[in-house]
Amino acid sequence: MLTGVLPAVKNMKDFEQLLKSDHEYLVFLETRISQIGNIIKYAKKSNKKVIVHADLIQGLKNDEYGVEFLVQNVKVDGIISTRGNVISIAKKSNILAIQRLFVLDSHALERNLDMINKTKPDYIEVLPGLVPKIIREVYDNTKLPVIAGGLIRTEEDVRNALDGGAKAVTTSNGDLWNL
């Protein structure tokens, strides 16, 4: 189960630091397809599990074959995506599937909740993660664990998200990784 703060890696310096940390899971936000294999190998050598944001891997098409490559060749432990078809494929591949949803307005929330109720991801990542009321509403409508992400900048943001019902919080702010 994903809980607490999940460090989101944006650069290799952060990645190297996190390899030495106590965190079991790392979230890799942006990378290139040519780098992802080595990143996963190094993480596995340090007994880390890696969740990648499939939508942000440059050079990877977000389709069945892209997910197949990540699962079979790269051996990722989980995938984050805004795309329902990617989440469905990840679930069929028996890896962690996290549906990312942007709460821009009521219509977007409604549309995303419909998709989530069809795809049944393992977790839902709500962005921005600063609105505890929305975190609670997403959970109440799906009964799936929620991760808060996006614009999490302070310890108070982390606590508000967790108090609002999030099981975990993703942040690229290294000062918050060890809360």
Automatic annotation (TrEMBL):
The keyword Transcription applies. InterPro entries: Aldolase_TIM, GlpP. This is Glycerol uptake operon antiterminator regulatory protein. Pfam families: G3P_antiterm. Regulates expression of the glpD operon. In the presence of glycerol 3-phosphate (G3P) causes antitermination of transcription of glpD at the inverted repeat of the leader region to enhance its transcription. Binds and stabilizes glpD leader mRNA. Keywords: Glycerol metabolism, RNA-binding, Transcription, Transcription regulation. The keyword Lipid metabolism does not apply. It comes from Aquibacillus rhizosphaerae.
